[in-house]
Inverse folding.
């Protein structure tokens, strides 16, 4: 009897997953815990290991298809149980296990809209309601979708402030529409539901010479998420110039000690440590807005932005305030490594309360990061390098970096944000060696 | 009895009495002046209630005539109608309802002042005959309604040439009946008296019966009338009518340009209703009028401060104003709430249901297919016949259909038109759909119970999106 392989439940809030790539082909041997296929869910991409050793005898869900969790996607059994018909079909799409990750499977570029696209479209359609719910009607929601309009932006004249057809048509007529419209999908053609609006703002007219590639699931989600954030928060940025000389000295002193513990001591661990402490003193930056309420988060769950080959993910270090520099160093290296190798658990990419991103690693002096919703602030770390600075009327050389705080002015005023940053700056510049 | 009120309402029809109750509920002191001997107005006394009571009698007769089909043994060879019993039952219903309104007045402490009202200016209402007095009102609501109206050249004698007021009380079933006008009143009496055994001919000036309904509805009704033996002369003009001792003769111009003489026992003039403003003194007070109707704005304010008007007596100017009981009530409630200082919103007349109780009955709301096209919508329609439904077969009522008119672009439901069994009830779902700005897709996804007539609505929605399931 072959063993069924199911779409795993990758977190409590996740109901379905999209198979992005089959790493094994039908007929191939697979070891227990060897990566079998790659999935993409709402939250994360992951490689799914085989539950048993055997031969992949049947692939039931093709690349690009989305199925509910616990649906059977494949079977593993004996070599003589291989189903030839499906084998041929599945073999066409899947590059071998050695192929670079995230490469678009051939199958996707030729296939028409896939169920995966529908999933994304559905998510996108629901999003305006996250951001200020407003009563409307089925008709209004359809018009809104077609015209790329956020219903929450429209004043409703109906009972209980309900946005009526009249309201939305008036709004569009007055120029409320966001950007030019892409092709309008015909009514009653669900397969052609409009894809994520974020990624499609201005009309593009590709010429024959241009290369067209489908947006990856991750890319669409990033696009949606970023536009949603820009639309939700009143972004303001504050830049501080911070002297890292003390920390640089400590890093040199402790390097050997940490290497013995198997950990590379990075600037990021110091910054994370100082930030979580400062968040304790400035809880408004570790909060969210929920309707008319401020939600002060009990836990400090620190998101660390990790760049991937064709995207970006923000794994979360839970209860980061309970970790010392060593613990944070380990945690950061661990999640970054697992993010790059797609071994993150979906529960590890949500629930963050504050995020640190590091544009400096690519040489940026400073960045202007977009807040990771529903958080209210994000810290961007610029490149850390030796710079000439004025010290007591003399010019000296110090290890310096620009830190940028992006914050949501709906909740956080400039003075509050700058107090927080001054706190962070002070504790970085006078980092207590005993804390390390 | 005090003579000073927050609100004095003139007329106790469905507009006036409902406005009175709502005003009282909202804490106002209210008086209603009514010249008739009972409360309830046209709807309760001469209109909706008595006609529909007669229609139920006609329906009962139909079922009894089909007794064999139902497996019921009826002693008499040919069941006949006893008009005395019919009127007794009908009057019992009408009296019960008008007394119900009296009870509601007492419950809400509304003063019913019997007599004719005249606007005397400065918030004064003079009651002539009956309980003569002068009332002081902070606010006045005119709800005097309408009455049957003839056309030039045809004089109502209430003997041979009658209106609906007389048609509800005929002691004997006429052998033959001519009906001028095929609006709700005309086609309803055609159904009643045809079922009772009269030879009925219905004459319509416009090219089709029920000319304000969707064309498909008109065609279906004409077909059904033909089957039932009701003659329809459309695009035909009655130029003359003369009453004799035992009959009435009319001259009609048919569309082929010929003149035709028709004779019958009675001529029912059902060409429309006009406003009742005689003796009211509205014009003298400076209330702006239009073609005899009182002109009001979208919140039913007349041109004179503190004087509002609702119901059949008003005109909104450009917007056609339907003379329907439920519309008057809605307007009455709106005015009461406005006077109480509540936030009110104008009524959308595209969302008013039209119910015609002919056989087969008609329920409709919103735009007809032709109107939708006129307004520039990219229209698509879908319809579904009742006859396919199990429920319709069981009831032995398999005529008619449900038709949905929708906008292709946004899938908006623009209108729903039904003819056939229970259509006047089923239209309620369509009214809600329009009110809530439903898309056809929402209607498709709405589960309709089986076996019911309402399945036709779900199926018509499917049909609008391509294909009905059971067709």
């Amino acid at each position: 009897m072959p063993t069924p392989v199911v779409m795993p439940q990758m977190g409590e809030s996740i109901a379905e997953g999209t198979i992005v790539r089959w790493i094994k082909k039908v007929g191939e041997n697979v070891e227990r815990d060897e990566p079998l296929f790659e999935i993409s869910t709402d939250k994360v991409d992951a490689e799914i290991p085989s539950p048993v050793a055997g031969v992949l005898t049947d692939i039931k869900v093709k690349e690009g298809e989305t199925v509910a969790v616990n649906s059977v996607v494949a079977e593993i059994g004996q070599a003589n149980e291989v189903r030839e018909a499906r084998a041929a079909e599945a073999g066409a799409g899947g590059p071998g296990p050695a192929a670079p990750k995230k490469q678009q499977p051939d199958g996707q570029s030729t296939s028409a809209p896939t169920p995966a696209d529908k999933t994304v479209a559905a998510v996108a359609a629901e999003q305006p309601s996250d951001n200020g719910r407003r009563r409307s009607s089925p008709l209004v929601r359809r018009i809104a979708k077609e015209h790329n309009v956020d219903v929450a932006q429209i004043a409703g004249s109906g009972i209980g402030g309900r946005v009526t057809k009249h309201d939305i048509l008036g709004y569009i007529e007055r120029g409320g529409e966001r950007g030019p419209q892409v092709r309008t999908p015909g009514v009653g053609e669900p397969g052609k539901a409009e894809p994520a609006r974020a990624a499609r703002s201005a009309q593009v007219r590709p010429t024959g010479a241009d290369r067209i590639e489908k947006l990856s699931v991750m890319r669409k989600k990033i696009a949606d998420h970023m536009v949603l954030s820009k639309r939700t928060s009143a972004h303001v940025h504050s830049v501080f110039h911070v002297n890292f000389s003390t920390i640089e000295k400590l890093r040199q002193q402790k390097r050997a000690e940490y290497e013995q513990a198997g950990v590379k001591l990075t600037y990021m661990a110091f910054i994370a440590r100082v930030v979580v402490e400062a968040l304790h003193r400035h809880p408004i930056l570790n909060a969210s807005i929920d309707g008319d309420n401020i939600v002060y988060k009990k836990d400090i769950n620190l998101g660390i932005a990790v760049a991937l080959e064709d995207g970006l993910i923000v794994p979360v270090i839970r209860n980061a305030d309970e970790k010392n520099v060593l613990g944070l160093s380990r945690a950061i290296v661990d999640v970054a490594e697992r993010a790059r190798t797609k071994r993150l658990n979906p529960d590890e990419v949500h629930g963050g309360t504050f995020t640190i991103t590091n544009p400096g690693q690519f040489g940026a002096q400073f960045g202007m990061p977009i807040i990771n919703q529903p958080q209210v602030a994000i810290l961007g770390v610029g490149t850390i390098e030796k710079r000439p600075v004025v010290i007591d009327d003399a010019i000296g050389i110090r290890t310096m970096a620009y830190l940028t705080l992006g914050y949501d002015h709906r909740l956080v005023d400039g003075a509050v944000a700058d107090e927080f940053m001054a706190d962070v700056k002070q504790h970085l510049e006078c980092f207590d060696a005993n804390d390390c | 009895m005090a003579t000073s009120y927050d609100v004095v309402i003139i007329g106790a029809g469905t507009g006036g009495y409902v406005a009175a109750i709502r005003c009282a509920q909202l804490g106002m002191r209210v008086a209603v002046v009514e010249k008739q001997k009972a409360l309830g107005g046209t709807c309760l006394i001469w209109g909706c209630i008595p006609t529909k009571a007669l229609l139920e009698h006609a329906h009962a007769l139909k079922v009894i005539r089909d007794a064999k089909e139902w497996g019921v043994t009826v002693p008499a060879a040919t069941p006949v109608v006893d008009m005395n019993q019919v009127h007794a039952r009908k009057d019992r219903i009408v009296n019960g309802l008008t007394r119900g309104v009296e009870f509601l007045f007492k419950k809400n402490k509304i003063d019913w002042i019997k007599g004719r009202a005249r606007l005397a200016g400065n918030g004064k209402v003079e009651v002539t005959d009956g309980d003569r007095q002068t009332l002081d009102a902070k606010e006045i609501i005119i709800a005097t309604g309408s009455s049957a109206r003839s056309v030039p050249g045809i004089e109502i004698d209430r003997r041979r040439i009658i209106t609906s007021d007389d048609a509800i009380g005929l002691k004997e079933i006429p052998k033959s009946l001519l009906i001028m006008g095929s609006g709700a009143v005309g086609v309803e009496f055609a159904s009643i008296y045809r079922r009772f055994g009269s030879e009925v001919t219905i004459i319509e000036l416009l090219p089709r019966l029920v000319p304000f309904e969707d064309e498909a509805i008109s065609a279906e009704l004409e077909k059904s009338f033909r089957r039932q033996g009701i003659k329809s002369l459309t695009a035909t003009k009655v130029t003359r009518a003369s009453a004799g001792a035992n009959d009435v003769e009319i001259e009609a111009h048919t569309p082929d340009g010929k003149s035709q003489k028709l004779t019958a026992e009675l001529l029912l003039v059902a060409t429309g209703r006009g406003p009742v403003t005689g003796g009211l003194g509205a014009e003298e007070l400076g209330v702006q009028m239009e073609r005899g109707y009182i002109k009001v704005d979208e919140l039913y304010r007349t041109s004179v401060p503190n004087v509002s008007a609702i119901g059949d007596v008003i005109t909104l100017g450009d917007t056609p104003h339907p003379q329907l009981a439920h519309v008057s009530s809605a307007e009455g409630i709106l005015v009461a709430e406005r006077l109480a200082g509540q936030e009110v919103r104008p009524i959308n007349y595209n969302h008013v249901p039209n119910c015609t109780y002919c056989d087969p009955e008609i329920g409709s709301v919103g735009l007809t297919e032709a109107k939708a096209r006129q307004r520039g919508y990219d229209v698509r329609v879908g319809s579904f016949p009742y006859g396919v439904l199990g429920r319709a077969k069981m009831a032995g009522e398999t005529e008619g259909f449900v038709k949905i008119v929708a906008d292709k672009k946004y899938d908006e439901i623009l209108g729903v038109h039904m003819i056939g069994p229970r259509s006047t009830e089923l239209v309620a779902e369509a009214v809600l759909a329009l009110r809530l700005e439903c898309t056809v897709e929402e209607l498709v996804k709405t589960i309709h119970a089986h076996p019911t007539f309402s399945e036709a609505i779900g199926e018509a929605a499917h049909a609008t999106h391509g294909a009905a399931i059971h067709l």
Remarks:
- Residues 4 and 136 of chain B are 5 Å apart (CA to CA).
- Residues 83-107 of chain B form the longest helix (25 residues).
